[in-house]
Every structure is written in structure tokens, then in C-alpha cells.
Amino acid sequence: MSAYYYIGLDIHKRTISYCMKAIDGALIGQGKIEADRKSLDEWAKGLPGPWVGAMEATIFTGWVYDFLKPYAVKLKVAHPEMLKAITAAKKKNDRADAEKIADLLRVNLLPECHMLSEEIRELRRILRYRNHIVRMAVNMQNKVSGLLMEVGASYSKKRLHGKKYFRELLERVEDIPPSVKELLKLSRSSYEMFRSFQKRLVETLHTNLIHDRVERLMTIPGVGELTALTWVLEIGDSERFTSIRKAVSYCGLCSAQRESAGKEQRGPISKKRNKHLQTMLIEAAKLAPRWNEQLAILHERELKRGDRNRATLAVARKLVAYMLAVDKKQADFKLPAEMQAA
């Protein structure tokens, strides 16, 4: 490793600042290049020797990481919040940030975060966009209901979003301004477009790359296709979690711990989490007890001790334990004999 150069990269939308150092901390070079593939290619080919690089995780990191990986001996991505805590200083600029990243890299103190493969990140991007489309479809549903309530039209809440009922509703309602009818039709067409688009997005996620893993997770009663897909594409390699507690913490299903002088305080659910995974697990935990007897028993027991939200969290944690076990064993879900007997 002593023969390598250590390069820190501070990435922004239009420019990338870099700092290159030797193992002893001697400055080899620093500067700024344009944030495009052509400039990066010219810069990487002009480096004086083999190098190890690091960059902070941002919205721009993915494509830069994928592009530079073939040029580097090793490329790392730093956790932004932990990096900020380590390198907090009075003076802050792009040049100084790149130098700090290079220094942390060469002394092996860089707070590294896990980087998924390019293929998994591409599928994850599709899944997250699908979830965004679903939220927009729900907004359109609510907008239709709101417009009807504004003009005092009576309707069946359960049947409102059916095609036939909606068409009949527009024909029979009276005293509704023409402008409102046009807005209702527009909202309905947007809703149908979002629904069909999200279904097509889910179909694109059915690849051989993750098919077997998703099928195994779906053997857990209460775990559906979208929950399994979210777990696989957000977690990546399950082996990076050495315990269930760490997986639960990553999913944002526990509170932050603050302990000093023997006194411990627990606050609300921590904001330091994977919010996409947290949302999906919470939604799954609300329905899973209907399909899973063990989860129903757990939910009922926790419900007696506290409120409904606490019971939902307990079910979500148990789902994490189940899915982590299935992932690590690479086998279909099966309850232990003593639990089946009970």
C-alpha cells in the first residue's frame, strides 16, 4: 500500500476537487476538474501511478464511483454524517474537504459506508421511483374526493375509484360546474396513468439477479413481493449485518441511545435510518399479523403492554429477524419444531 497514491475527491454538480498525497502525507497534487466523464477520463489517465481513492456519499457519487472504479486499485465511499463529525473545522472549502478525505484515507480512519453493486443500485432506483409514483396516485385519489366534497356531491367512498362507478357518477351528478367535471376527469386520467406505470415498473424488477432471493423471502407468511423486493434492494448483502440488532437499527426500528454517568435515556425512533426500508416494514407490519399466527400472537402481547404503534414496531422487528435469517441461511422459511407445536 505504501507505493500507492491516496486521493480524496470532493464532488459537486459541476466540479470535482481532488487532493493527492503519498503515504507519508506529502502533497503530490491538488486541483479542480469538470464533473463530466470526458474530464474524469483525461484526469484518471494522467495520474502518475496506482492510486486508492475516496469520496463522500452524495447524490452525485454513484456515477463517479462507477466511472472511476476501473482506474483505481480501490475506491471507497465515506459516510457523510460520520465524516462531518470527524473533520469538523472552522475553515471549510472544497479544497480543504478533499485534503481531509485524502488524509483520513491514508491513515485508514475513513468512516466507510457500504456501496451496492451498479446492477442493484439500478434496480433500487426503479423501485424507489415506483414508490414515488404510488404516492402521486394516492394524491390523485384524494384530490378526486376533495373536489366532490367541495361541490357537495354525494358518492360511495368504497366504489369511487372504480372505472364504471366513476363514469356513472359524472353522468348522474347535478349542479356541478363544468370546470369541476373537467378537473375530475383530469385527476382520474392521471390516477389511471400512475397506476399502470407503477405496475410496469414492478414488472421490470423481475430479474434473475434477485429472483431466487425474493422467492425465498416470500415463503415467510406476511411478507409480500414488494416487501421482499425492498429488503433485497435496500439491504444488499445481508452478511454485512453481524447481528439482528444492527439490522434493526439500520431499518430505523429502534430509538437512539443516550447514556452518561450510568443514566440511560431513550428518545423517539431514530432519524438515522434507511427511510425507504423503514416505511415499507412499518406498512408490512400492520398487515402481517393477519397472515402469520406467530406475529399475531406477538402483536396481541405487545398491544396489552403499550399502544398500537409499539406493537407494530415489535412486529416489524420480528419481520427483520425472519428475513435476515432466511437471507443468511439461503433457505425457505421454516419455524422451529417447538414453535410449530405451540
Topology:
Blueprint: E1 5-11, E2 15-21, E3 27-34, H1 37-45, E4 51-56, H2 61-68, E5 74-78, H3 80-86, H4 94-106, H5 118-150, H6 163-172, H7 178-204, H8 211-217, H9 225-235, H10 244-250, E6 255-260, E7 263-269, H11 275-287, H12 293-305, H13 308-329, H14 337-341
Parallel strand pairs: 1-4, 4-5
Antiparallel strand pairs: 1-2, 2-3, 6-7
The end-to-end span amounts to 57 Å
Question: Could you describe the largest sheet, including whether it forms a barrel?
Answer: 5 strands, mixed
Q: In DSSP terms, counting alpha (H) and pi (I) runs of 4 or more, how many helices?
A: 14
Helix content: 40-55%
Judged by helices, strands and strand pairing, the structural class is alpha/beta
Note the beta-strand portion.
Answer: 5-15%
Looking across the biggest beta sheet, what order are the strands in? 3-2-1-4-5
Task: Write structural notes for this entry.
The structure is a single chain. The protein is of the alpha/beta class. The chain folds into three domains: 5-106, ATPase, nucleotide binding domain (Nucleotidyltransferase, domain 5, 2-Layer Sandwich); 119-204; 211-341, no CATH class. The chain contains 14 helices and seven strands. It has helices spanning 37-45, 61-68, 80-86, 94-106, 118-150, 163-172, 178-204, 211-217, 225-235, 244-250, 275-287, 293-305, 308-329, 337-341; strands at residues 5-11, 15-21, 27-34, 51-56, 74-78, 255-260, 263-269. The strands form two sheets. Strands 3-2-1-4-5 form a five-stranded mixed sheet. Strands 6-7 form a two-stranded antiparallel ribbon. Helix 8 crosses helix 9 and helix 12 packs antiparallel against helix 13. It is globular, with a radius of gyration of 26 Å. The chain starts with a strand and ends with a helix.
